[in-house]
Amino acid sequence: MTPATTQPVRVLLLGGTGDALKIARQLGPADVYSLAGLGKVPEDLSCEVRVGGFGGSEGLARYIESEKITLVIDATHPYAAQISANAVRACAAARVPCWALRRPGWQAQSGDDWRMVGDWHELVAALAPFRRPLFTLGREPLAHLDEIPPHQFWTVRCLESHKDSPRARILAARGPFTLEGERALFALQAFDVVVSKNSGGSATEAKLEVARERRLPVIMLRRPALPATDREFDDVADLLHALRA
Ligand code: NAP
């Protein structure tokens, strides 16, 4: 499906990532940038910004119809599988095209020791031999601070601030992270394993380079399956080019 040509294009951009913000900066006053409401809300955009869920795919379909949206662009994080599935369902119901920015994942390089896991349960099992993990996969570990085994001390880096516990340090931080900064952090904290999502992109990639330098294993949470959309782009510039065309 391509955007309807009989009415002016009105884009709904689903975001919450640095790449989505780059797209949002190119949108105009007729367009809408949508955020779940977990992070910072930009105040310097030309487009409308809305914050908060739609109420599932039905709510999103109603929003698309009532706001006369002609094109939805899913530029959410590769692990935000629910909103991506909702977008495809809602677009089909509202009969508007859905495009997606699907950021390519990182690839293990020669000598890397990546241990792939599918869920929290597998992750905990893979973590058992280690003592000082660095978690870089968001807030999920915060729900498990009472379950840290006696031989482990966790460092959890995520957006939220949270009080430290006797067995964990919480680092509230937002990328991008530099190579120098990551080198300093790893040296100071003597991590023996990194726990990560395969987010792709450059903003949080430096930790993998430092893990490689220090020959540390990486426990990598597999990407969720995402639905096919009408058009997919792996690069912001290509998507913007198609949008202008
Ligand atoms: P999710 O599980 O796919 O979505 C949960 C619910 O949050 C959705 O059903 C929807 O609520 C609402 N939602 C998500 N993105 C939205 C958006 N852009 N605009 C309006 N509502 C949205 O998502 P998640 O993994 O919790 O991530 C939430 C947001 O954080 C996403 O927008 C994502 O881009 C961003 N983010 C996620 C990660 C990650 O690792 N998951 C990392 C960085 C940034 P309703 O059903 O009520 O519409």
Automatic annotation (TrEMBL):
Signal peptide: none annotated. InterPro entries: Precorrin-6x_reduct. Pathway: Cofactor biosynthesis; adenosylcobalamin biosynthesis. One of its GO terms (molecular function) is precorrin-6A reductase activity. PROSITE patterns: COBK_CBIJ. GO terms for biological process: cobalamin biosynthetic process. The keyword Cell inner membrane does not apply. It holds the Pfam family CbiJ. Keywords: Cobalamin biosynthesis, Oxidoreductase. PANTHER family: COBALT-PRECORRIN-6A REDUCTASE (PTHR36925:SF1). This is Precorrin-6A reductase. It comes from Paraburkholderia fungorum.
